[in-house]
Structure formats: C-alpha cells, structure tokens
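Hypothesis: this fold can be encoded by more than one sequence.
Test: take the structure tokens below, design a sequence, compare later.
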C-alpha cells in the first residue's frame, strides 16, 4: 500500500521556486573598495567587472553591488529571504558608517522553478511536434521549450518528466506556465 502511494506522489505534477533574481537600489553611492577591504565574503576586481560580489551566508544569497548603489540579488527562494538579504547588505554598510535612509524597493527580474509534470517525455517527438524548441541531445540531455504567447516562460524538459522553468516573475505565473505547458504537451502528444 505504501509503495503505491509513493508512486502516485512521484507522478503528481509539482513545481517550486528555487531561485529569485531581483534588482534594487540603495539610492546611495557605495565605496566598493572600502567594502571589499572591510567585509568578508566579498570579491571585487574592477578590471574584470565593475560590481562587488557579496556572498551572504544567512539567508543564503549573493548580491552584485555597484558603486551607484544598484544591487542585483540572487539565490533566495522567496521574497522574505530576498528582503532579509537586502537588510544584511544595509547592516554591513552601517558598519562602514554608510546610512541607508530608504526602504529599498525590490523588483523581481526572474524566478526559476523546478518540478515534475508527472509524465515521461519522448524529447525527440516533442522536438519535432512543438514549435519554439531547441534540442541537441549530444550536447545537453534536456529540451528547451519557449512557451508561446505573451508569457516569458521558458522550460527545460527532461525525459523523466522533470522540468525547470525560467522567465516568470511570480509563483502564480510559474504555476500558470506549467499548466499551459502540460496542456500543450497533451495536445501534441494526442495528435496522430
């Protein structure tokens, strides 16, 4: 009885957010050299890249910080963790006597979700029947599928039914995109 339940769970469709990419601005000039010299978990090589990389341990995230005060933060799995990561940056700057007087506005740029659509896929068939696909199994085992329409969602599809979705800006968009994906797959797979 337990084996059947585990198999049923494996076949259920599911998706969860695994990474959120946001941009924000502290609206304050940031002395990157001073930051790099003072704080641990930073990398700054202005000859290679104009931003400072700040790896945050808790919550686990990374931020690119630019001298203009602009930030790109990635690695958090929900908005609460994103806000916590931004606050870690603000507190680190306070230690350098830089006071951020605003509540930084956070703009979601991209969400990455992974999951399972609950069905095995023949990627060779899908590459032929679906539009907007790229599939080169000699180079990568997944099929890239750009969802048609006004969505920005792009999927990586694997033969075991696992998926990665990128291009959405909310968990609702990710779920809606997955439902559209499943509908499109059923349409092309049921055609003779």
């Amino acid at each position: 009885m337990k084996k059947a339940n585990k198999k049923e769970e494996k076949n259920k469709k599911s998706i969860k957010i695994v990474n959120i990419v946001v941009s924000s601005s502290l609206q304050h000039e940031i002395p990157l050299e001073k930051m790099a010299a003072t704080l641990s978990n930073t990398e700054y090589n202005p000859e290679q890249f104009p931003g400072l990389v700040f790896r945050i341990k808790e919550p686990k995230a990374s931020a690119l910080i630019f001298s203009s005060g602009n930030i790109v933060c990635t690695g958090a799995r929900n908005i609460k963790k994103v806000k916590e990561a931004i606050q870690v940056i603000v507190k680190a700057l306070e230690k350098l006597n830089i006071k951020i007087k605003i509540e930084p506005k956070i703009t979601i740029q991209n969400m990455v979700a992974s999951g399972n659509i609950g069905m095995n896929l023949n990627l060779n068939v899908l590459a032929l029947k679906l539009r907007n696909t790229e599939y080169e199994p000699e180079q990568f085992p997944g099929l890239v599928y750009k969802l048609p329409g006004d969505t920005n969602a792009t999927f990586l599809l694997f033969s075991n039914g696992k998926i990665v979705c990128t291009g959405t800006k909310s968990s609702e968009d990710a779920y809606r995109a997955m439902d559209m994906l499943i509908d499109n797959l059923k349409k092309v797979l049921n055609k003779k």
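The chain has two domains: 21-108, 117-190. Helices lie at 2-11, 32-38, 79-95, 123-129, 171-190.
Hypothesis status: open.
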